[in-house]
Task: inverse folding
């Protein structure tokens, strides 16, 4: 041992150890905390390190081929089940979102008309042979619905109940020529009544008749129910004025009204089962 | 205890009712798309074609059932469509059993006649609401295109129902043949 310590190898070993210790001291004192040796080794070997890491990553993926298909099958089934759950939640979310949107509109009208009593309903069918957009709802006498109850969508009047079953009812839309609604234009306060023609109804439009020849109603005006007759409450929106024309058969004018509701896509509606003044002809 | 033949007849008649009720529910859902405002009244060809394959009482009853389902959604007085389709089924069944053959041409003719009559009656009924002013618009923009659409669908409906009704009949004929051989 003493002879080794006195030999050349011991001196070389001591020199290397001293250099490493000095390097450590220099790393501790330097700003980037690396010794000159580490910096030199890193400079030489970092590209090789990168290649080695990439190869290792590839080999890890290659190893997946040797995993049994049973494992993957089970994993697929678990993920599909999870996905199905998320899809169902998404469907529920969309349904609730749509309901919330429609209820927001109804809440506004309920706040404006506290005397209204509603029955929510869904459109479940339509008469193929009816040209005027009548539809069937899933509420009937068991839900308090009766003939001549108005049907609304948000603040729009869409129709009136004309046939009532126990659990379903037929609603005639306001485009139907058999439906007559007394109305007025909100800016000019002029009174009129809805009297549809086949041509206008087929185009999805309505007609406000009985206006003066010197009417001041302009396109863009909003037409609402006037409440006369006791069937429809006041201030339900019928639509907006598209144009004002002179009647050919007499000295009155009429306004072409565009309803604010898309009947083809109407799904959720409300039936007003009771309101103040219902059944009282003014 | 009903025989196998009686049970077969019962199931076959039940199938006819199931078909017309299903067609009625599909029609009320506007399952077939509108083509430029025209709609298909599929119950009319379904009742006419069904009457080609069944007895007179069953065709009459199936027509009434079809009309009753249509009446659920209809704005016409309740019962009108049940009566109309009941008699359509009855007449078609009588004509096929006495004077005409069961074929696509016969089905098409029935569909043409009864759909045309339906459309004409409906137009006139509506015209009374407009004091006859609305007839041209109503007829040419809605009822005539719908009539054409309905008649054009008749061959498809005939092909489907012919296959459906024949499956049960073929199966039963094979069963009878096998039984006769065994005996």
Result:
């Amino acid at each position: 041992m003493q002879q080794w310590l006195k030999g050349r190898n011991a001196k070389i070993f001591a020199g290397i150890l001293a250099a490493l210790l000095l390097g450590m001291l220099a790393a501790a004192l330097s700003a980037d905390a690396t010794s000159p040796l580490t910096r030199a080794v890193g400079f030489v070997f970092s590209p090789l390190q990168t290649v080695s890491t990439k190869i290792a990553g590839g080999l890890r993926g290659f190893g997946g081929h040797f995993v049994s298909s049973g494992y993957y099958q089970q994993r697929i089934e678990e993920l599909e089940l999870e996905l199905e759950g998320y899809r169902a939640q998404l469907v529920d979310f969309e349904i609730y979102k749509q309901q919330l949107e429609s209820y927001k509109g109804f809440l506004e009208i309920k706040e404006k008309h506290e005397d209204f009593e509603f029955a929510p309903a869904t459109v479940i069918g339509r008469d193929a042979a009816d040209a005027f957009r009548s539809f069937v709802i899933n509420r009937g006498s068991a839900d308090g619905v009766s003939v001549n109850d108005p049907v609304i969508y948000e603040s729009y009047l869409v129709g009136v109940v004309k046939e009532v079953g126990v659990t379903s009812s037929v609603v005639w839309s306001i485009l139907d020529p058999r439906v007559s609604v007394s109305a007025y234009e909100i800016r000019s306060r002029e009174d009129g009544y809805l009297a549809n023609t086949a041509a206008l109804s087929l185009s999805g439009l309505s007609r406000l008749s009985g206006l003066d020849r010197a009417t001041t109603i302009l396109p863009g005006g909003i037409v609402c129910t006037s409440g006369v007759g006791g069937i429809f409450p006041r201030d339900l929106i019928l639509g907006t004025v598209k144009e004002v024309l002179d009647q050919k058969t007499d000295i009155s004018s009429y306004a072409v009204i565009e309803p604010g509701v898309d009947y083809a896509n109407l799904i959720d509606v409300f039936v007003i089962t009771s309101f103040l003044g219902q059944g009282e002809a003014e | 205890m009903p025989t196998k033949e009686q049970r077969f007849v019962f199931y076959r008649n039940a199938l006819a009712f199931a078909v017309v009720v299903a067609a009625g529910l599909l029609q009320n859902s506007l399952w077939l798309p509108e083509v430029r405002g025209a709609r298909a009244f599929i119950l009319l060809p379904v009742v006419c074609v069904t009457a080609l394959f069944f007895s007179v009482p069953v065709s009459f009853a199936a027509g009434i059932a079809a009309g009753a389902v249509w009446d659920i959604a209809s704005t016409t007085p309740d019962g009108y469509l049940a009566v109309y389709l009941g008699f359509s089924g009855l007449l078609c069944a009588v004509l096929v059993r006495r004077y005409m053959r069961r074929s696509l041409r016969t089905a098409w003719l029935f569909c043409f006649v009864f759909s045309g009559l339906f459309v004409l009656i409906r137009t006139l009924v509506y015209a009374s609401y407009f004091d006859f002013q609305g007839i041209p618009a109503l007829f040419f923009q809605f009822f005539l295109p719908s009539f054409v659409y309905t008649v054009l669908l008749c061959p498809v409906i005939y092909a489907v129902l012919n296959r459906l009704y024949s499956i049960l009949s073929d199966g039963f004929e094979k069963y009878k043949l096998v039984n006769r051989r065994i005996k």
